[in-house]
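Quick question, first post here. What does this chain look like in 3D?
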Amino acid sequence: MDLNMKILIADDLPEARMVIINFLENIGFTNIKEADGGTAVLRALKKEKYDLILCDWNMPDMSGVEVLKKIRSDDKLKDIPFIMVTAETEKEKILAAIEAGVSNYILKPFTAETISAKLKKVFGD
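> Answer (accepted):
Ran it through. Tokens below.
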């Protein structure tokens, strides 16, 4: 796994972004950017290329699934691995994320080990 990959963290709560960033930095990742909502994610993707998106489900301006659908419908962006980070456990919502093309799913609360394991599933060792 490339520890220099460019990662975009999307969550409307600064504290939640900080937790994920700290876990990623402890794993060894160094190239991490933040977005405070779905609109900010789409804006960031227009400016530069990312290798991974970790996105919260519940954001006020646009849900994580809405962000995912927009990304998957764009030929330039559709192959970016997208991991949903959420407390949502309803089967219908998980299925909606799978149907939209989510790469993996992290349930809150989580640990650095959980993030590491999910990244290995998406990228391999």
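The two ends are 6 Å apart (CA to CA).
The mean pLDDT is 95.
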